[in-house]
Each structure stands twice: as C-alpha cells, then as structure tokens.
Amino acid sequence: LGRSLTMAPLRNVLFVMCDQLRFDHLGCSGHATIKTPNLDRFSKQCTRFTNAFVQAGVCGPSRMSTYTGRYVSSHGVTWNRVPLPVGQLTLGDYLLKESRSLDLIGKSHVIPDLAGIERIGVKSQTSLWKHLASGGFNEIDRIDGHGKPGLESGYANWLRGKGYQSEDPWNDYVVSAQSPTGEKVSGWFLRNVHLPSLVAAEHSETAYVTDKAIDYLKEKAGQNWTLHLSYVKPHWPYMAPAPYHNKYSAKDIQPVSRNPQELIDPHPVYSAYLKQEESLTFAKEETVHQVRPVYMGLIEQVDNEFGRVLKQLEESGEISQTLIIFTSDHGDLGGDHFLGEKDLFYDQVVKVPLMIFDPRPQAHAMRGFTVNELVEAIDIVPTILDSLGISTADKPIQGYSLLPYLFKSEKSKKRDFVISQIDYSFRKARLTLKRQPNECSGWMLRSQHWKYIEWQGFRPQLFNLKEDPEEFFDLCKDPGHAHMCSSLKNELMTWMKDVNARVTLSDQEVANRTDKAKDHGIYYGTW
User: Fold this and answer.
1) pTM for this one?
2) What is d(CA 492, CA 496) in angstroms, rounded to the nearest whole number?
3) DSSP character string of 133-173
C-alpha cells in the first residue's frame, strides 16, 4: 500500500511462458554453448530469480497453479486431462473485475469444466461461457501444440495459405521431415529429429505466435493491455525447422547428470518411471546425443523470436509502461537420472527460469542482478496484479508479489521452502506399481539445503542439496538421517493441513484414469 502511494501503476503486462524449458539452458544461467543473446541481454535489464520452482512437473497442473496463484491441491487440477473447476478464480477473473482483458496467444492447456459450467446454468457459447471455459483468457489464438491445432487457432488455415496443403498440416509438415531417401518421416519418432522440419522457420509455431503477438502489440499501442504470450517450444516433438535443426551437435550439450548408484535399490516410484517408454529411450546415449542438440536449437529459435517482441516494445516506446515476465511451465529431463520427459521432482524438472522486468525507476537498482531466495510459480499472479495497482488482500491467492525483490529497499516475503506435487495416476508407472488411481500422490518440500519427497504408500526420499546438488544419493535409506526425514515430514504435514492438500477423486475420474493410463504415451519416446 505504501508503494502504491508513491509509484504509479503500470499500464501493460507481457507474460511470456515457454513449455518444457530447463532453467539451465540459457546463456545467462551458465550454459556454455547455447546461443540466447536476446534473453541474455534481457537478463541485464531485469531481475533474474535463480531459485524459482513450479508447483507440478507437468504442463496442466503447473499452468493452473501459475494462472490461479494457488497450489495444485487447492485448485484440484492434478494432471493434464483434469478440468479446471469452474469455481477456481484465475488471473483473467481478477482482471475482468477491473475491466481489463487477459489476452492469450499460444498455449494455455486449460481443460474446461463443462459439467460445472452447465450445472451453474451458463448457456453454451455465451461470452460468460467462453470466459469460464477458457480459464479466464480471451483466446486471440490458442495453439497448445503436441497435436493438430483446434478451432481456437488459425494456424492450420494460415499454413494452408502459405502452401502447405493438407487436412492436417501440423502433423504433415510442422512435425514431419524428409529422409535422405525422399520418404516423409514423423518427428514423433526421435530417430528423425536431426532432420529439418518441412516448414520454413518463419512458418513454424514459434514464429507464428510471435507474428500474432507483434500484430497485437501494434494494434494495442497506447491502450491498456495484458498479454500471455505462451510458446509451445521447446516441448516435444523435438522437430526444428532449418537452420535450427543442426545449429548444435553432441559436443555442445551439457554432461548428462546420471550416476550408476541411482540404480542400486532405487525408490519404487523412480524404478517404475525407469521402465516407461520415454525413459528406456532416453537411457540410450544415442538418443541423448541426437535429441539434446535439437532441443537447444528450438530454444535458440525461441530466443530469436522473443527478441523480435522486445524490439517491437522498444521501438514503440511501450516498454516504458510494461511489466515483462519470462518463465517456463517446467523443465525437461532429457536423459538425466536415466529418465525422459518430466513429472518427477528433480531440479531439471521443477526448477525454471524466471526473469522480471519493471520499467519504473525504483527497479533500477536491481537491474542485472540475481535473487537467490526461493520463489514459486504461484507468485506470478500477485506480481502482475501488484504491478497494475490491484490489491490481492481479498483474493484466494497463495503466492506473494515478487515486486519487493525488484525494489531493493522494500521488505520481501521470504520462504523457508517451496512445494511441488505429482499425481501419476495417468501414467504407466501406476500400473507397474499396481496402485489405484487415488493412491498415486507425491509431494516435494524443498529448502535451500534439503529436498524431502513424501510418497503415498511408499518410503520417502531425502537429498542433501549442498553435498549432493545433482540428487544422486537418497539419504532416507540411511537410518542416520531418520531425524531429518521426520522433521521435514512434519513441516510438510503442517503445510498440507494449511492448504487442505488432498483432492478426492470421483468414481468417474477413477474410471477415466484407469483407462487413460493404458494408452498414454503411445507415440512419445519411440526411437
């Protein structure tokens, strides 16, 4: 409140999110070979948070935490196919109350609670129905990636207008390539991702949403606006257009973080994940050496396109009134710990890049500096509202504004630990472990020094992050660490009590998860 009396609220917000971007795959975060000049330059203009954590290591629940400012167990979206309950308020709801729109270009991963919307009597396709079904977004062009674009996006028709004639140009061109023998091959198979996509770089998903964003910024110049620009890359399929498909080689990748000791008496849940298709595939050196360079190329493309957006803001002068946030919804294992994909609680998954730019003079002192305190993705909503001068005191938000970190003279709310959660009931690991769908929860409590993981029905895990930063040695198997495990479990149980941390599944949800666990990942990971 004191700040609002001395500092005028900002007019605009640009909230940029990548999908599956690791915290350590930017030049400014220490990667030795990746080229991210625009994000590196941006990091010198803003404040970079080096210990930012998401509330789940998979797209849907992580994003719903980010959009609501609430923990997974509070909003109830425990995995990708779970709808966002109609009663959960989002950033879009808070902005709408202030006569502002939360505009979306790119991915949101919101699954609508159609039954809930119908139950409260909202007529289909009305403006209120669309608001609730979209999670509070005004969907200018929604493109979630990983499949044929839906009716929310104009990308398919746009591609056809560029000459990519097909009923499904995304599968037939964007994530397909031509083999040396002239055969069309799919990027869903990792053996093909070294080949260039059949679309030109300027026609890729990353360029398309950037073009849409630049058009939006030109149209909105001088007005109040809030834009969520959400890139679908570098998420799989790891298929990049030329020249990004071969910008890097195996010699450019970071050393793979894995230790044979991890495979000795592994934790049951970890062991089950080792048996999943993506992990069996990424355990192979040839997979890592082929996929990681392309993953890096996709990141370089995102960097180039983000640079175009920054240039538009700078040339128009809008940057002087715009809060800019850059982050990711989770990371990517890429062979670390003998695993593929994400889901679990390793830092490669739950730790994400986070940079915040505030143009006001009060933020000058922290430009180019890093903050090492623990922060969470649920802090993004209150940060955005704070920048716009909107109070969060009357809102069910569980995060804290990060602006005090940018204004060094102000007292910041510090955390002793961060929380992340998992529900693997949709995953084949559940079947391997012979668990029921409501027996598949896990919770991570991470401090600066320790990482404690509580597993429903299994022993916990404990890692000493100062002595073992790569999380190779599970200390909960050591009786000498029983007291530390007990102490951290008590901390977690107190937190769980505070946020009512169990979501009971309905009979229909159990049946749905039983069915979906059998067919998840049919395409992904196959070499």
Assistant:
1) 0.95
2) 6
3) HTTT-EEEEE---SS---TT--HHHHHHHTT--SSSHIIII
